[in-house]
């Protein structure tokens, strides 16, 4: 019986690895029909539920697997199930328990550090990334994550020191220059910021985040046309990058290119009609153009009733125009 269950698990795992999740799921369920409490199968089926975004069911499976066998991997996966449900404290406890069972698990330490970043507990994140680099793996990926945590803390000198160390290794040079550019932008060293991001783009010219940062640097240098050029380049690569299109539109508004700005907001709302930022700034540009006050009031009245950062702004603007 055990041999048959293991065979079904192995077949399911092979299917899972090539992305045939439905077929893998059938194998795991066949295995559970034979042995309902087999921990490997319970865990493997939990992984399928993670792929299907059925996180509560995944949580149930990982708990059941761990109750049968206290294995670090099962607790790690349970942490993922919690994290995907935004159960941050439960996820943290699970990752820590996984580390207790297997102190050398890079994946568990990485998951914990990433969770700290998500929780905005950047000091804990720094400590965890440092431990990984010093004790487990000094890969440049982890140095970059450490630098990102320092940036979030506003400790730019420490971040630059980490990036300088990372620059001596080959991997992820484009990200080293990107975060260096971000630091220089935040410290108003715009020339250095521009020079750094150009080095990132020399390595990956179609990276949208790199071009978006260059556009921001151009704006800081009052290089309006150059910023527009970068945003247009991004939109040629990805017309659904709504954040970039809105940034472009707001900048066009600031220069009183209201028709062009309105056109960009309409393009966003064509694909994402609930985009609150695009709705709010569409109302503003319509006001600037002295067009359709009734439409403006309708947009703002709708915005003020919903739960998002632009609700209060819409209410304030309504008060002013009425």
How would you describe the overall organization of this protein?
This protein is an all-alpha fold and 322 residues long. The chain has 19 helices and no strands. The protein has helices at residues 2-17, 21-34, 39-51, 55-68, 72-84, 88-101, 106-118, 122-136, 140-153, 156-166, 173-186, 190-203, 208-220, 224-237, 242-254, 258-271, 276-288, 293-304, 310-321. Helix 4 (55-68) runs antiparallel to helix 5, helix 12 runs antiparallel to helix 13 and helix 17 runs antiparallel to helix 18 (293-304). The radius of gyration is 25 Å and the shape is globular. It starts with a helix and ends with a helix. The mean pLDDT is 95.
Topology:
Elements: H1 2-17, H2 21-34, H3 39-51, H4 55-68, H5 72-84, H6 88-101, H7 106-118, H8 122-136, H9 140-153, H10 156-166, H11 173-186, H12 190-203, H13 208-220, H14 224-237, H15 242-254, H16 258-271, H17 276-288, H18 293-304, H19 310-321
Helix pairs in contact: 1-2, 1-3, 2-3, 3-4, 3-5, 4-5, 5-6, 5-7, 6-7, 7-8, 8-9, 9-10, 9-11, 10-11, 11-12, 11-13, 12-13, 13-14, 14-15, 15-16, 16-17, 17-18, 18-19
Give a brief description:
With 322 residues, the chain is mainly alpha-helical. It has helices at residues 2-17, 21-34, 39-51, 55-68, 72-84, 88-101, 106-118, 122-136, 140-153, 156-166, 173-186, 190-203, 208-220, 224-237, 242-254, 258-271, 276-288, 293-304, 310-321. The longest helix has 16 residues, at 2-17.
């Amino acid at each position: 019986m055990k041999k048959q269950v293991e065979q079904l698990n192995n077949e399911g795992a092979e299917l899972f690895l090539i992305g045939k999740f439905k077929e893998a799921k059938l194998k795991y369920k066949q295995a559970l029909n034979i042995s309902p409490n087999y921990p490997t199968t319970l865990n493997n089926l939990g992984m399928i539920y993670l792929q299907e975004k059925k996180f509560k069911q995944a949580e149930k499976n990982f708990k059941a697997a761990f109750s049968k066998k206290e294995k670090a991997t099962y607790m790690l996966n349970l942490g993922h199930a919690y994290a995907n449900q935004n159960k941050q404290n439960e996820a943290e406890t699970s990752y820590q328990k996984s580390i207790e069972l297997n102190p050398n698990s890079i994946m568990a330490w990485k998951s914990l550090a990433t969770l700290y970043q998500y929780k905005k507990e950047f000091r804990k994140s720094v400590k965890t990334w440092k431990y990984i680099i010093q004790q487990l793996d000094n890969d440049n990926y982890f140095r970059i994550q450490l630098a990102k945590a320092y940036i979030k803390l506003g400790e730019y000198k420490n971040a630059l020191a980490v990036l300088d160390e990372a620059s001596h290794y080959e991997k992820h040079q484009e990200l080293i220059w990107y975060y260096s550019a971000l630091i220089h932008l935040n410290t108003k060293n715009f020339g250095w910021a521009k020079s750094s991001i150009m080095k990132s783009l020399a390595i990956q010219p179609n990276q949208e985040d790199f071009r978006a940062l260059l556009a921001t640097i151009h704006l800081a240098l009052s290089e309006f046309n150059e910023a527009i050029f970068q945003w247009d380049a991004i939109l040629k690569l990805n017309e659904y990058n709504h954040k970039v299109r809105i940034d472009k539109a707001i900048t066009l508004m600031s220069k009183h290119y209201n028709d062009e700005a309105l056109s960009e907001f309409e393009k966003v709302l064509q694909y994402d009609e609930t985009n609150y930022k695009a709705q709010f700034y569409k109302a503003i540009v319509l006001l600037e153009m002295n067009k359709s006050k009734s439409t403006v009031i309708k947009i703002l009245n709708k915005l003020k009733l919903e739960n998002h950062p632009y609700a209060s702004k819409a209410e304030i603007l309504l008060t002013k125009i009425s």
